[in-house]
Amino acid sequence: MSSDPTARNALAGEASPFLQHGATQPVDWMPWGREAFERARREDRPILLDIGAVWCHWCHVMDAETYDDPEIAALINENYVAIKVDRDERPDVDARYQRAVQLMTGQGGWPLTAFLTPDGDVFYGGTYFPARDSHGRPSMRRVLTELARLWREDRERALESMKSVRENLVRVAEAEAQPGEPEHAHLAHIIEDLAQSFDFRNGGFGRAPKFPNPAALELLLDHALENDVAWARRVVVETMHAMARGGIFDQLGGGFHRYATDARWLVPHFEKMAYDNGPLLSLYARAAEALSDPELRETAEGIISYYRDVAPALLDEGGFPASQDADFGFDNDGDYWTWTREEVHDALGGDPLLVRAAMVAYGLDDPGSSMHQDPERHVLFRAADAQTVARTLGIDVAEAKQTLAEVRSRLKQVRDARPRPFVDETLYSDWVSLVASGHIAAARWIGDDEAGAAALRALHRVLGAGWVDGAGLRHRVGDDGSGPLLDDQAYGLVACLDAFEYTQDAQWLTRARALADVLLDRFRDIRTGAFRDRPVDAQADVDMLDQPLLPIADSPTPAGNSTAALGLLRLHALMQNQRYADAAYGVLRAFAGAAHRIGGSASTWARALAWAIHPVTSVVIVDTGDTDGDALFAAALRSTRPRTVVRRIRPGELQPDALPPDLRAMVTGEAPRAYVCAGRTCAAPVNDPAALTEVLHTLRG
What we know:
By secondary structure, the chain is an alpha+beta fold. The chain is built from 29 helices and 18 strands.
């Protein structure tokens, strides 16, 4: 147990930073587990469930206003069993209760506040409840009092509400997992859904708030590259530029914030999440190469710089941080990240040229970049490029670039001296794998070898300290009590495949196979063919966790089922093991009947569908490890051709049955040679990198 003298409850020994903070509150919090539910049954009390995260601003606000209040704490302690959950640590718990509360109220998010029966079923819920009635929200004090009375005096009403939620949960689950035959029409429908929801004025999909959707952009990038579709290219380029130039991208420190509150991508919620920045790094690195776009490359480099800046020791040891908080105190939302004009003036020493350049470049005169609660504070965004700054200030472009570099350097130096929002260095297998895949993408497509090395260190650590033979990857690395979850195995599988193609080290392919086997043996739902978010044989503290959850929507993390299918199809393309392909097809069939309803939220599923129904390109480099072979291999890795797998072998090394039949018939011991087949269509072998690049650009399957 913790020796913290301020600890007041059973959270004192928890590893989670979010729960550790709860340990100092006057609420008699308990961690999620059988003990809490047994106490609720024994004492016949309802349960107050609080789900939040260390990076969540409104969680901090509710903690400070509500759970730190001795009077409210006394009300909770007298009438409820209180359970506090870290959503990063227990995404399986969060997913189920988010869904239940959303069905009741139409809203979800964090903090999530749910009131449960002693058996764990929801009968009332919401998100943020203020200490006092305000803005149409009832106060927590009033909610606690009324629900305690309801439980004592009118319990049947609470139980009726609980039954309604249960029935709705079943209906939603059945609607999501509708089987069907996967067809090209499903792919076309999802692409059309994205086209219809594109914001032609501001980029992105839909209206405010705006969330990054890297899976959708990867899908449209594939569509543009493969079919030369101008509108798809426009959607990708305009959205990626809008995000990179907006306040959602940290213009001083790099990396993306979680989402934008406005349609222009200017004012974000400031937390930075691994689950956003990993897939966005993969997207920006690949798109930079595919579209020959230096701005996209610069954005990818900014994400890499962010990680090196905030967690250098962790990267050296092996790992990537889970998140960075939005603030350094509940009452200063965004103060670390935002600026007043006076602060900019002072940071630049009052230099007229630098100050004017900052005003023009970062949009400090644009009211759209103002913080709602404090209009004097502005989010920096890229309002003007160097050419525009040069014209406005009457200087040449070279001087403008030098001036802007000086402005950025000085502002970042001043910001670095502010109290920094907390960086959570907890290692979650799924999120580390996502960021590792992003760093490998940067190594492949923008040539950052150190990014590739950081990814490999992280994966070695996750697979060393997080792996349990026969069970899979633990969710939290190094925690024996942290059970494996679907996303850990699925994202880990894809990251190992990325590592294998990048290094051609067979250990990564072996690890990918082990992860795939865990998916098939422990997570596959026999009835549907899809994967559950928890192992089929996992122990459940309450019935709520026993309800099968088959994640298919990207929300915004890539859906576990879709990612697993994508990884299994890639593994099949590399090994020609039909077991993996059959399992992937099973996942696609499980949701094909619902694809038209899920639409653009099923973009990762659509990418897996494309792997299943369109030709896959196999590239085999045969060489003896010399410089000519290195050049051929580098050309193969640089290709951004959709649905491509790369193998590099020495003459006579590869087992013939690991290649598609048409490619198998071509490969000889002559080296160096590159062999390319797209489905049943094969090109003549080449030994020149430029010729290989041309083949990969023009060959049609």
